[in-house]
Amino acid sequence: MQNTKGRLYVVGVGPGHHDHMTFRAKQVIIESEIIVGYETYVSLIEDLIQDKEVYRYPMTQEVDRANQAIEFAEQGKIVSLVSSGDPGIYGMVGLIYEILADKKWTLNDGIYVECVPGVSSLNSCSALIGSPLMTDFAVVSMSDLLVPWSKKRIHQLKDTRDIFLKYRKPDTPVAIVKGAFRESQKIVVTTLEKLLDYNDMLGMITTVIIGNSSTFNYNGLMINPRGYKSKYELLPETSKQ
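The chain above was modelled as a monomer; its predicted structure follows.
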């Protein structure tokens, strides 16, 4: 029997350039009849959706677009709800499952749902500035849109830097990456002490990576040793000579 249930793909399109989109992401977008998403993210895949029904939303209407995508799938449509980066990291898939749980959706009887992972901003920014994530790391969102730290994003980064300075040296390497792999890309590698000198680069498409106690700056790259040097000779004898 033909499957008449709708399908909802929650798709991560990566940093923006098609070269960094997964094969599966392109596949489900091409398969989909309907595309739903934040207008900026939809514009990243414009050439893939020329013949599709497209619903573009402004920022802060996440609940509306999630509900619309689910409703289309419940009508038997094939839908892609698109996010930049990875939809499971500060993305839309969490909201989708929250709504589905409230609707008492089940795997067996409800619409088909698939999270299509993508390259997150953490991955893309790391790739541009060396190897800063070679050991344990933590990720914190500085956004206060849904988690109200304050009404204005003025003091958060300063407070964060002050906390780090209690445990890290002032010359700890720091990278500020804005618009990774997009036309607006801008990268600064600086230090924890000078982090606030670059306030003009901060915003929703910016990632700040702070090194650990072992991270060092080499030719403008942040390198975080994995620990091999403590166990192995990194250079063969012929190279030393």
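The first strand starts at residue 7 and ends at 12.
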